[in-house]
Amino acid sequence: MGDLSGKGGSFVRKRWASGSSQQVKGGYGFLAGVNGGNEPTGRLVYGNGFKVAMTGANESTGTADFSLFLRICVRPPFQQKTCTPYFIGPVPWISVKENDLVILGTGR
Fold it and tell me: pTM surpassing 0.85?
Protein backbone atom coordinates (compact mmCIF):
# COMPACT_ATOMS: atom_id res chain seq x y z
CA MET A 1 0.00 0.00 0.00
CA GLY A 2 1.04 3.52 -0.53
CA ASP A 3 0.88 6.57 1.68
CA LEU A 4 -1.23 9.63 0.82
CA SER A 5 1.59 11.95 1.82
CA GLY A 6 4.04 10.04 -0.40
CA LYS A 7 6.68 10.08 2.32
CA GLY A 8 6.88 6.38 3.13
CA GLY A 9 4.66 6.42 6.20
CA SER A 10 3.51 3.53 8.34
CA PHE A 11 1.19 2.04 5.67
CA VAL A 12 3.80 1.58 2.94
CA ARG A 13 4.17 -2.09 1.90
CA LYS A 14 1.28 -3.24 4.12
CA ARG A 15 -0.92 -5.98 2.68
CA TRP A 16 -4.48 -7.20 3.02
CA ALA A 17 -4.86 -10.92 3.70
CA SER A 18 -7.57 -12.75 1.80
CA GLY A 19 -10.72 -13.09 3.88
CA SER A 20 -11.90 -15.76 1.43
CA SER A 21 -9.18 -18.21 2.35
CA GLN A 22 -7.86 -17.11 5.74
CA GLN A 23 -9.91 -17.48 8.93
CA VAL A 24 -9.30 -16.22 12.46
CA LYS A 25 -11.02 -16.94 15.79
CA GLY A 26 -13.84 -14.55 16.61
CA GLY A 27 -16.87 -13.90 18.73
CA TYR A 28 -17.19 -14.11 22.49
CA GLY A 29 -19.43 -15.60 25.12
CA PHE A 30 -21.49 -18.70 24.41
CA LEU A 31 -22.17 -17.60 20.78
CA ALA A 32 -18.43 -17.67 19.97
CA GLY A 33 -18.72 -21.32 18.90
CA VAL A 34 -21.08 -20.55 16.00
CA ASN A 35 -19.46 -21.26 12.61
CA GLY A 36 -16.75 -23.23 14.39
CA GLY A 37 -15.66 -20.00 16.10
CA ASN A 38 -14.12 -18.72 12.84
CA GLU A 39 -14.51 -15.52 10.86
CA PRO A 40 -12.70 -14.14 7.80
CA THR A 41 -9.52 -12.17 8.20
CA GLY A 42 -10.32 -8.47 7.85
CA ARG A 43 -10.58 -5.13 9.63
CA LEU A 44 -13.21 -3.29 11.63
CA VAL A 45 -12.80 -0.18 9.50
CA TYR A 46 -15.94 1.64 10.63
CA GLY A 47 -16.37 0.27 14.15
CA ASN A 48 -17.66 -3.09 15.27
CA GLY A 49 -20.95 -3.15 13.31
CA PHE A 50 -19.41 -5.16 10.48
CA LYS A 51 -16.04 -6.46 9.32
CA VAL A 52 -14.46 -5.52 5.98
CA ALA A 53 -12.59 -8.35 4.27
CA MET A 54 -10.80 -8.61 0.95
CA THR A 55 -12.68 -11.36 -0.86
CA GLY A 56 -10.89 -11.32 -4.18
CA ALA A 57 -7.72 -10.02 -5.79
CA ASN A 58 -6.38 -10.16 -9.33
CA GLU A 59 -2.75 -9.13 -9.63
CA SER A 60 -2.76 -9.20 -13.43
CA THR A 61 -5.52 -6.57 -13.61
CA GLY A 62 -4.50 -4.80 -10.38
CA THR A 63 -7.94 -5.07 -8.78
CA ALA A 64 -9.34 -6.19 -5.43
CA ASP A 65 -12.87 -6.80 -4.18
CA PHE A 66 -13.99 -6.09 -0.63
CA SER A 67 -17.05 -7.45 1.17
CA LEU A 68 -18.78 -6.95 4.50
CA PHE A 69 -19.38 -9.65 7.10
CA LEU A 70 -21.92 -9.28 9.90
CA ARG A 71 -22.45 -10.94 13.28
CA ILE A 72 -25.28 -11.43 15.76
CA CYS A 73 -25.04 -10.14 19.33
CA VAL A 74 -27.48 -10.68 22.20
CA ARG A 75 -27.60 -9.76 25.87
CA PRO A 76 -29.50 -12.52 27.68
CA PRO A 77 -31.13 -11.55 30.99
CA PHE A 78 -28.65 -11.54 33.87
CA GLN A 79 -25.73 -12.44 31.55
CA GLN A 80 -22.97 -10.67 29.68
CA LYS A 81 -23.34 -9.68 26.03
CA THR A 82 -22.39 -12.49 23.64
CA CYS A 83 -21.61 -12.32 19.91
CA THR A 84 -21.06 -14.74 17.06
CA PRO A 85 -17.97 -14.40 14.89
CA TYR A 86 -18.40 -12.15 11.83
CA PHE A 87 -19.56 -14.91 9.49
CA ILE A 88 -22.80 -13.65 7.90
CA GLY A 89 -21.89 -12.72 4.36
CA PRO A 90 -20.14 -11.89 2.18
CA VAL A 91 -22.11 -8.80 1.28
CA PRO A 92 -20.34 -7.29 -1.78
CA TRP A 93 -19.11 -3.80 -0.99
CA ILE A 94 -16.48 -2.13 -3.18
CA SER A 95 -13.95 -2.97 -5.85
CA VAL A 96 -10.71 -1.04 -6.13
CA LYS A 97 -7.90 -0.70 -8.65
CA GLU A 98 -4.23 -0.11 -8.06
CA ASN A 99 -3.59 3.39 -6.65
CA ASP A 100 -7.20 3.75 -5.44
CA LEU A 101 -7.85 4.95 -1.89
CA VAL A 102 -8.67 2.20 0.62
CA ILE A 103 -9.73 3.21 4.13
CA LEU A 104 -8.00 1.12 6.82
CA GLY A 105 -9.58 2.54 9.98
CA THR A 106 -7.84 3.04 13.29
CA GLY A 107 -6.95 -0.59 13.96
CA ARG A 108 -8.72 -0.58 17.34
Answer: no
